[in-house]
Amino acid sequence: MSKEAYESAGLAVESSLHGPAHPLVLTGARLIDARGIRENSWILALDGRIEQVGQGRESLESALRAAGLPSLPPSFQPGSDTHDVNADGVEFIDAAGFILTPGFIDIHSHGGWVHSFDDGDEAIRTARACHMVHGTTRQVLSLITNPVDTMCTNLRSVRRVMDSRPDVLGAHLEGPFIALSRKGAHDPKCLRDPEPAVLDNLLEAADGCIRQVTLAPERDHGYEAISRLAESGVVPAVGHCDADYDQTRRAFDAGARILTHVFNAMNGIHHRQPGPIPAAVEDRRVTAELINDGFHVQDPCVDLAFRLFPHRIALVTDAMEATGCEDGAYKLGSLDVTVKGGHARLTSNGAIAGSTLTLDVAVGRAIQAIGLPAPQAVEAATLTPARALGLDRSNPITGAPLGLLAPGYAADLLLLNPADWSVKTVVCNGHRIQL
């Protein structure tokens, strides 16, 4: 696709989010969420929320009557190759033969479709569409390390976009408060300590849109910054750091609650120098991000991570602007990136520069390559990231909680092909998305 075609698709996806959320019924599906699997199930969504969940046609008819909605049209026979039906303002979707899960939530990604979340409102719209069509119904927009003034400008863009669409949860600052020795693909000229005045500038520019900040706690003012961020309603994350075990424990006690892309850009586990990973393993308050693309973390260590952090792994993409595109030359912030075989590396030194991963692929790999039970893999892309940011309950950001197929939760729904976990249908906030 051309850049113009990507942008046109971005407009179509964004337009799908506006207007009233009409009553929606999906029936005949195999429901999978963090609580398990339910066969031959249906979901009724009203006004952007899940109203009821059940099994069987008779119980669905009862739910429709209770809601004052029309019965299933006689022509609608789930599983018989009938088309979806609109009847009296209700959309009936035949989900027979498909998997139905909550919408995916990505708390760490940088862009897609040749656009970066750092590059303003229009770029955000296009990059968001790239991930929406792959099932990510809600997303935190990760901003790369830049001069502080630039990061403030980018935060204001995220704030504007948040005000106009429900699928953007806010911003994640990955830097500039990270360790030079663990900078990865971040511009070393822009790294700095998290002095109080700098934090003040960023928080003021964000106007409440910052969800997460990744920092190296061992930097000067690191622990003070963690406490300040936590008190401001931001989730501090330990990452891109040289912190040892004791320093990491201190960071968690100060308020840090996320370990940014576990195994990457941090000290590994050594039997005499445990490092940050064992500190996170033993602290059940901490969620561990994991990039499951088979490249950032090899499959045996992906399996190990799920064993070390039961119910605490949040699958993330760390996706950059080349996501959904062909191999070639791209940018990550101001740095040149070469993508070959779908893997992104800095042109200058070969350092890994984010990924081209999408969450449907990450979930599918967890099940088909790693061998995880489907509910556990789905949990890692739905309920766990929601819980990491306090969005698994009623909250001022999304209103309805996220992460489960249950009454009262946001109507963020995916129909997935059981053969490969690819996306067939996306519903965000009760709106069926134009794919």
How would you characterize the overall build of this protein?
The protein is of the alpha/beta class. It is built from 12 helices and 22 strands. It has helices spanning 3-16, 57-66, 121-132, 148-164, 196-206, 222-231, 245-254, 276-281, 299-308, 359-368, 374-381, 383-388, and strands at residues 24-33, 36-46, 49-55, 85-87, 90-94, 99-102, 104-109, 111-112, 115-116, 136-143, 168-174, 210-215, 235-238, 258-259, 287-291, 313-316, 328-332, 335-340, 343-346, 413-416, 423-428, 431-432. Strands 1, 2, 3, 4, 5, 6, 20, 21 and 22 form a 9-stranded mixed beta sheet that branches. α10 packs antiparallel against α11. The radius of gyration is 21 Å and the shape is globular. The chain starts with a helix and ends with a strand.
Number of beta-strand segments? 22
Report the portion of residues in β strands: 25-35%
Q: Which regions are unreliable across 5 or more consecutive residues at pLDDT < 50? A: none
Kindly, what is the distance between the CA atoms of the first and last residues, rounded to a whole number of angstroms?
14 Å
Give the overall shape.
Answer: globular
Mean pLDDT: 95
The residue fraction in helices comes out at 25-40%
Rg, Å, rounded:
21 Å
User: How many individual helices?
Assistant: 12
Structural class: alpha/beta
> What profile does the largest beta sheet have?
9 strands, mixed
What assembly state would you assign to the polypeptide chains in this entry? single chain
